[in-house]
Fold this protein.
Amino acid sequence: MRNRTGKLRISAGAAVYMAAVMEYICAELLNAAKDETLDKNKKRIGCRKLEVAIRSDEELANLFKNGSVAASGGASLKPYAKLLVSEKPSDPFMNLFSGKKEP
């Protein structure tokens, strides 16, 4: 095969087609989330309802199989114990700088 060294050309209609595809995906996603929300007798579509709608629809689940909905609210995640700062430093040298006296 020949290697192409020139610029890749994209037609003006490609942007219109891409916008139409994105609009269709958003409409499908919102319609599935709306149905899920109305089934639970709620008035708002939340992040959890979007996630449930994606996982319940076979085509949307295939499209979003490697991703998830970024939620700014909802249940908080439990932090890892290794990442938490302990009250008592393990190094006695650090006590010199913190102003605390070693017991």
